[in-house]
Every structure is written in structure tokens, then in C-alpha cells.
Amino acid sequence: xxxxxxxxxxxxxxxxxxxxTPPPIRELKDAKGAWSARVFHDRAPIFLVxxxxxxxxxxxxxxxxxxxxxxxxxxxxxxxxxxxxxxxxQISNCIALYRDRILDLKRDLRLRYVSVFKDQGLAAPxxxxxxxxxxxxxxxxxxxxxxxxxxxxxxxLHRERCIFCDCIQQEIQEGRRxxxxxxTFIAVCPFASRSPYELWVMPxxxxxxxxxxxxxxxxxxxxxxxxxxxxQRIEKISLILHFVIHTEPNVEAHxxxxxxxxxxxxxxxxxxxxxxxxxxxxxxLGSEGFYFNPIPAEEAALVLRALEPEExxxxxxx
Length: 318
Fold this sequence. Notes:
By secondary structure, this protein is α+β, with helices and mostly antiparallel strands. The protein has helices at about 90-105, 145-160, 165-175, 210-215, 215-235, 265, 295-305, and strands at about 25-30, 35-40, 55-60, 60-65, 70-75, 115-120, 130-140, 180, 185-190, 200-205, 240-245, 270-275, 285, 290. It has 2 domains: about 20-140, HIT family, subunit A, CATH 3.30.428.10; about 145-305, HIT family, subunit A (2-Layer Sandwich).
């Protein structure tokens, strides 16, 4: 097998090099029978499908096996393009794959959460910038999601409303942090953003589950059409970005009590977060958990609204 750490190595994600990756879990094909997007297990997974979590006490601490899933979604056969450069139909394919992989992995009751994310511009040398994202199924909740779930539930118990729905209504009324909006979705720079030009894409109608909300192909296409100009605007700020989908936890997985997630479908609201990496403009005081962002959300939204989401020429297909 080729050494993919070598800068001269071929891209394992390009058509014709499928033998360098594990067999596909799922492939979408075009009218000619060629794949347009594919999913397979990571060759060097963080989480392993086989085995049991074997959760056990070690004094006051917990120890467990790294049981879960680690999958790669190759978003296009074309090398060197970004998600923003893909046509809406191809972005729809990616969204459908994200949805289907979340639904499938949540059938595994060992997994408490399924993450979908991409780190654009931070690819390993072996991947040569071929557009892809990752799906992680884990037996624990990611830290940021656990915080979101806790605050969402707290707001709901005090106000009997979804905190995200309240936020959306306020943003629509004020308009200062809204970057784009149609009858279905809204894109806002969240109040007190953690990073410069941070952008959230949310459904206006309440839904806690990305994967269930997008069951209708027409809705998938609607999200793809809305998401594309958001990504194009962000790419005018930086080609390096973090993209992550926040959805409800696996409510059927193990939970400490029967009512542990009893309100999550009412108190949580799925959303997509986009974090461009603006060099020199973001600081995280990790030891104390503070973020420093010199660009207020209102200023960032003003800049992003002014940027026209123009098509960027993609490299010619091979």
C-alpha cells in the first residue's frame, strides 16, 4: 500500500483510487453509474465498532472502551473543490448522506451521540485537500453538546419555550445579526459569538432532529440551496473553516433514568455552525474557558450580508 504520509502520494479519495480506502458503506451514483459521493470507515478510527463499552468505575472515575463509529464522507469525486463550490444538487447528496448515516448509527444503542463535522483547509497531507467530512458515533456526549443540552433544558423548564426559537424570534425582530433568511431557514451571527464571523444556520420551524426534519427530499434541497451562499460568504472571509451539525442525542440509547431526555424534543433545536479561521483574530484562553473575539456579531453580520455569494470557479474535472 502507498505511504500516504508522503507528499508525493496519490489522493486516496479520487476516483480510480478506491482500493486505497475501506469498502464503501454507502455510495451515491450518477446516471452513468459513477459514484458522486461515498462513505466508508476511517482507516485509522478513533472509535471502534467492535466490542462492548465495558464501562467501569476506577475509584470516583469512569473508564470505558473506545466503542463507536468513525466514518469518512467523500463529498465529491472532483479533487480540489470545496463544499461551497459544489452545485446545490451535490450539496443535497451530502446532506442526505449525513442524515442517513446519523439515522443508521443511532440504531446502535451503545452510541449516545452522532457527530457530523468537517475541518476544511486543515486536511492531513495524505488527503491533499479533497473535500470530505467525518461522522463520529460515540458512547458519550461531546462536551459542547452536553452544555447546549443542559442550558436548553433549563430554559425550557423556566420558560416552557425552546431557547433557540426565542433567539430566532428576537433575531428576526432586531435584524442586526441576521445574515440571510427565507421562509424556512435563517442564518445568524450568534450574540457574543465565540469566534469572528461565526455563523449559525437554523430551521425557523422548531425541530430538535436534523435527521428527522430532513426526511423529505424537497426539504433537503431547500437546505442545500440556503446553505450554499452561506458557505460562499464564509469562504470570502477564510477558506479554512470548521463545519458542524448539532442535533438531538440518541434518545433510545442508555440513559440514567427513564425521563432523562423527556423534554429534549421540545427544548433543543438542531442547527449547523460555521466557524471560519481568521488568522490572528481569535483567541481561546483554554485554561479558563474564555473566548476573546474582537469582532462583534453585529459587525460580522453586516460584513457577511454585504458579501455577494458569487460562484468561485472550480478546477476542471479530471
